[in-house]
Structure formats: C-alpha cells, structure tokens
Design a protein that fits this description.
single chain, 322 residues, mainly beta, Immunoglobulin-like, Membrane-bound Lytic Murein Transglycosylase D, Chain A, 3 domains, seven-stranded antiparallel β-sheet, four-stranded antiparallel β-sheet, 4 helices, 20 strands, 14% helix, elongated
Length: 322
C-alpha cells in the first residue's frame, strides 16, 4: 500500500513540474517543422547541352590566293571567317546548316591562319575548335598548302602543293542551259546517290540527288547578273566532300554580249559565231580557243554561261604572222 501511495505522489509531482516548466518557457512544446528542400544552386543545376560547333569541311585555294570555303553551322546562324584574327568574309548558314564562301580578295603570301565563328539567331557566339593553316607561296603560280588542325587530333592535309588534275574528284558541272521560261538548267556528274548542292554568290540555290548512273540535274530561277557558282557534293554523313567553283553570267541578251574583252556564251552560240562577231571572220575562232584552252575541251562544244577572254583585234594580226 505504501508503494502505491509513493508511486502516485511521484506521478503528481512530475505532472506539476512539467506544467510549471511549460508555463515559464523552460521547454518548447511546439512541434518541429522539417526544413523545406532548398533549390539547387546554379552550379548544381543540370548542365545545358553545349551548342554544336561550326566546322570547316572544304577549303580550296587557287594559285592566285583566292579561296573557296565550305562547312556547317547552326541553321540560320551568321558565319564569320577570320584570317590571322582579322575578319575575312561572312555569310549565313542555310536551313540545313550548310554554308559556302568565296573570298573577294586573295590571301596574302606567307602563313595564313583561318578561324571560324558562329553567331546564332539569339546572339550567342561560338568559336570552332578547328583551325585552317594555309601556306601561300611567295611566287604566284605555285599551289598553296592547306592544313586543318583540331585540338587532340591529327593534322589533316586538305590541299597539297602538287596538282591534282581537275581537283574535284567525281564531281563536275558539265552544262549550263536555259529552258523556255528562262530558268537556268545545271547538269553534271557526281557519285551515284550523293546529294549535290548549288550555291550562287554564297547563297543556297537548291539541291538534288545524283542518279544511279552518276548524273545530276537542277533547275533554278535566277535574276540577270554575274554569279560565282559553287557546286558541292555531300558524303554519306551530309558533310561536304567535293567542291568546284566557276563564274556564270545570267544575261538578258540572247546573242553574244561583248564588253571589256570578255564574251558570255549564251544558248545557240558557237566559237565560229563568237569569232565572226568579234573579228568579222568566223575562221578566226582559233584565237578565242587558244586564249581559253583551259576552259574549252572541245571547240565544237561550249556551254552557256561560260565566260571567255576575247583577245584584242591586234592579236589576230600577231597570230596570222606567226
């Protein structure tokens, strides 16, 4: 009985003590709250994927220092090429990301380092990790050496100093003609099943796919004017593999147009007709043929849009006297 009384007294004293401590704030009876999870800091946030880098795919430099450059970048982005850190040329990548540039001035003799920069439509600027090294000979007429370097990768030779024949592999532009509505018809050869793209003054004109026989054909509506054409064949990964460049003039005249010592060949022309217009005698067509032997494989076969040098009248006398 005594034990029970002592136990009851202890319980009562404990309850009284606990209430007194609560009253005088000696203990905190409010329930504890779990801290809300903190938002991740910027360093902890999931990284956003880096934008794809622009790339050099084709670089061709002729003996006079003029270059044809093609590659890939984000569609619609501005592409700028720098030569020794100075702006050289710029263009806008097409809807498929491809771009092509033809330099308006020759590269200076010596070592030239090309870098590539892409500015997206939202203003973000990205530099390519590729660098092009070009060794332009001091003596005009020698073929430049072109190298492509990538950090951590082997240096690639894009163009060797020695001649490579036509320098375009399986790709060619064989004919330029016009249809009845005045649209320009381009046709040539390429590897079977490969995509062929056409650029005029750096602007994308169109593309087609070579047939199983290796033939391609494309029709384009072009305003009258002088153009620099770039024909590019893509590889199986959609990257430029071969490129050629040639001048073309889409003229209003249906006849031969002579000015500044040049002739623009239009449909229906022949060397005989050009010579008769230039010199008064068709038999003098050999003068024009010899002056443009690098363009004319067969004097009986010339193509609309070709631009030929027409030597001055005194060349006829010199030729006759030899």
């Amino acid at each position: 009985m005594r034990v029970i009384i002592i136990f009851i007294l202890l319980v009562v004293l404990g309850f009284v003590g606990w209430k007194a401590a609560e009253r005088f704030k000696l203990i905190d009876t409010t329930p504890t709250e779990q801290a809300a999870p903190t938002a991740p800091t910027p360093d902890e946030a999931a990284p956003t994927p880096a934008p794809s880098l622009p790339s050099f795919d084709i670089v061709r430099v002729d003996r006079t220092g003029y270059a044809v450059i093609a590659g890939r970048a984000a569609p619609g982005s501005k592409v700028t090429i720098y030569a020794n850190e100075k702006p050289l040329a710029d263009t806008v990548a097409g809807a498929d990301g491809s771009w092509a540039i033809s330099t308006e001035t020759p590269l200076e003799a010596g070592s030239v380092e090309l870098s590539l920069e892409m500015t997206s439509q939202d203003g973000a600027t990205v530099r390519s990790d590729q660098t092009i090294i070009i060794y332009v000979p001091q003596r005009e007429g020698d073929r430049p050496l072109v190298l492509r370097t990538t950090p951590g990768g082997a240096t690639e030779v894009l163009q060797e100093p020695r001649d490579e024949g036509v320098g375009m592999g399986p790709l060619s532009l064989e004919t330029i003609d016009y249809d009845e509505q005045g649209a320009v018809i381009f046709a040539g050869k390429a590897e079977a099943g490969r995509v062929v793209q056409l650029f005029a003054n750096g602007q994308f004109v169109g593309q087609t796919t070579a047939t199983a026989e290796g033939q391609w054909r494309m029709t384009a509506t072009m305003a009258p004017g002088v153009y620099t054409l770039h024909v590019i064949q893509l590889d199986e990964n959609g990257r430029p593999a071969y490129a050629i460049e040639l001048p073309f003039e889409r003229a209003n005249l249906s006849d031969v147009d002579l000015r500044d010592g040049k002739v623009i060949v239009q449909p229906g022309n022949s060397l005989w007709r050009v010579a008769r217009r230039a010199y008064g005698r068709g038999v003098q067509y050999t003068i024009i043929y010899e002056a443009n032997a690098d363009q004319i494989r067969d004097p009986d076969l010339i193509y609309p849009g070709q631009i030929f040098e027409v030597p001055p009248a005194e060349a006829e006398t010199d030729s006759a006297g030899q």
